[in-house]
Structure formats: structure tokens, C-alpha cells
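Next comes one such specimen:
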Amino acid sequence: MASYDRNFTDELRTRLSIVDVVGRRVPLTRKGQNYWGCCPFHNEKTPSFSVNEEKGFYHCFGCGEHGDIISFTMKTNNMDFRAAITELAQMAGVKLPDSKPRDPAAVARAESYVGITERAAQMYQQKLFEECGAHALAYIRGRGFTDEMIKKYRIGYAPKNSLIANSFANAKQENLIATGLCRRGDYGLYDFFRDKLMFPIFNARGQIVAFSGRSLDGSEPKYINTTDTEMFHKRKTVFGLNFARDAIYRAGRSIVVEGQIDAIQMQCHGFGETVAPLGTALTEDHIALLCKSNRNITFCFDGDNAGQKAAARAASIVMPFLRDTSDVRFAFVTGGKDPDEVLKSGGTDAMRAIIDGATSITDFLWELANKNYVTSTPGGQARAEKFLSAEIAKITDEGLRRAYDKEYNSRKFNQWSKWTRKKQEVKIALPSVDEITRGTLVYITNTFPELAERHGEFLGSLNIDFDGTAPAMQMDANTAERYIVSLKLQKYMERLAAEKKECMTRMLAGDDVAERIRAIDADMEKVRAKQDMLITV
């Protein structure tokens, strides 16, 4: 059997929670100080399998099986010691020490891969400071990057020609293709990254295993990454983690932002615990990787719709990883800015205020439920309850799950107990409607609650008391919805007309608003077309 230094196996036991390792195979429920589940080593219906997270061992009171993360991995996966250590080392993100000579071919392949990516990074950085990379250097310096930052994170520039394919002409084509830096075309190899600002991606050992290239001409996608290779898997790689690991330990949390530039700027301005996913939606693997360092995570996203959606997805993904000691929060950068812009305009203090003011995951989910569903109606409340119940069900800790359920039940009783439509705060003041329109809308919302939910934001902006008596009317759901849509178009047309009147006044005063007036006229024409369609339906 292969042998390893005891310090290394102890490090694995320290880095990895036995609850996480066992929980991948056995559903666990916390009772008192231990976690319990049905033993994977013998058939049973009543859980007798105990896991102690603090001491790092498991014990079955039914069959007597006992051990730690290593023995559990060996027995449940039918692995030998070396295979189990390898898997656990990968989970922990630590380098596996050699216990015996490695396969020469594998060593050569790995060394060739890392050798190519390392040399490529050197060439990219050299090109950044040459004439061909002047526009890329101007861009990154314009984003507030000093030359010291550029060198630390080894930022570079991939020119328009095939730099890598031409520079490695004597290397094996299979090796170049395996790194993801080159592809094979009709006329030979060509570079995958061209005219891109290059961000190296490091593994846990600090080796460059991939790159992320940012477009400089405004083309989409903004970032492209090395495709998955033998040494790089995008879904399992967190950008900046190699720099942030120690800071996460010291800060007792990690901060997750949306992009590489944001992550680097945050790290260089006092938030060394900041990381980012690699141009892809956050995954369970990303969260699992972060939770190995610390289960306290603050997600910091842009305040736009895309940022809100990303936050909602992150909340849903992180729920199974919650423990009663977890502190998961959500911060949003508003005003169309990102963390990089906040740091440049407001400095570290402004960014710290945003991070310190982050919303707990308990409050964030509650806000989501109230924002996405009209909780002033029974139907909306039912849908919101289903949403909350589904999220709570993902929590694996039974005691924590009960605590969430109790908290939301209290909020539902105190805030949803009276069925009344609350007036919503609106950013744009809309004129009130006449009594006939008000009566018609009251009838529609009382008769077709699904329409009230679908158009709740607009209806709430009219400042109407929907608790009044509804008049007797004959109207089907389609007609009712056309009525609401028609009213929305009418109100929008009124706002456009008011804005155009204001622009005409400004034009007389000498302001250059001709372009805006043309845009308003185009919008008004579109509204008229939609109104005509409603009439002809």
C-alpha cells in the first residue's frame, strides 16, 4: 500500500469536513452534536450511523463500522488507499505528494502542458508592453491597474496573429491543442486567443492552467475562457482563489463578484478574500470549493436585473451547503456601477459600506418571495409559500431547516395575515384614473387574481384601493387582460407626450434634444401600433 507523510493526511482531515465527505453519499440530519443517517455499510431503515464533525469520525451503532474521511472514501468507493487520498486531495485543492515514481508519459505530458502555459503567459505579458499591445495596456491602465498589479496577476495581451502557434512550431501539435491555446484549421494550427487582454488562471498550486481573454473592441462575449482540458475545468475553477485562500482564512469569509477585473481590484483594495466565477453562472462545484475554505460567503453583484437573477441563483445553489454557523449574505452595487467603479469613485470606504450592509440570505429569500409574487392575494401567498418551502427543503441540517421554517411562518403571520393590496412605491408618478376605470380594475383584480399577479407592479402604481366593492360586470379573462394592457399603453403614451412637451421647451431654450425628440416620436409610433392591434383583436 502506498504511504504518505502523516502531516499530509492530517492536513486533509483538517481541510475537509467529514460531514461534507460523508454527506455526498449519505443524507445526514443533525441531532444534538452529531449528524445521523442510514448506514451505507449495511441495510437499515432506522438511522444508526453517527458522524461527529468536530472530532472527524463516523460510527455505526448497528454494524460497528468506524473511521474517518479516508476510510470512508476507501470503503464506500471500493478504493485503495492511494486512490482515496487522491480523491480527497482533489476535493481539498492540495497537491498530492508522490509516493512512488509516476508514469513517465504522464509526467512528460503534465510538464509539457504547464511549460507551454507558463511560456505563453510570459510572451503575452511581453506583448502587452510592446507597440502591438499599446491599446490593451492603455485599457487596463485606464481601469486603474498599476504596472505592479499587472505583473502580480501576470496580465498580458494576445496579438491578432497566431503568436503561440508560430512560437511553438517545434512542439507537438497535440500538446498545443491540449492546452486549449491553439486549434487546428484547414491550413494548420491557429491561436484561440487573438486581440484579447489576457488573464492567466492559476490552480491551487499556483500553476497557470488556463487563460481568460477579454475583448477590447466591444464585441461579445466580453470574456472567453480556455475550453475544458485535462488540467482545467471551468465549472470547478474559481478565479483568484490561489491569491485569496489565506485572506479568506484571516477574514473568515469569501466575497464573490462577477468578473475578473472586479476580483483583482477588490483584492488590491483591502478585500483580499474576493474571488469570481469564470464567465459562467455560479455552480455547485464553485460553492463546494469555497465552502472548503469557509462557509461564510458574501455575494456582491450588480444591482441590475442580471445581477438580481445571478443572486437568486446563488441563493438557491448555496442552500444545501448551509450550516447553523454559516453566514451567507448578498450585497448589490447600484447605479449601473460595478465594484471596480465604486472603488475608483468612492474608494475602499464606499465599497466596505456596501459589503457591510449586505442582506442575510434569510432576508434575501423573503424579499424575493414578496417581489416575485403578489403576496396581498391568497393566490400570490400560496405561490410565495411554495417558493420558500422549496428553498428551505434544500437545507440538509434538520435543526436549521426547522429554524428557517419557524422564522418564515412568523413573518407570514405578521405580514401576510390581512389580505389587502398594499400601495407600491413607484419611481415615476402616474396620474390617477377615473371612477369608471377604477371600478373596472377592482372587478378584474377580484375576478381574475392571476391577472393581478401578472400586472401587479403596474396596478400598484395607480394608487387604487383594490379592497373596495367590485361592480357587476361581464368580462372574460382575455378581455380583462386586453383592458389592462390598453391602460398601460395609454399611461405610457401620456408619459411620452409629457416628456416630448418638456423637450420642446428645452429646445426653445437652446438645448440639443433633437435626437431625444426623434426617439420619443419613434416610441409613440410603436405604442400607436400596439393600440391598433388591441382594437383589431
Residues 526 and 532 are 10 Å apart (CA to CA). The longest strand covers residues 208-215.
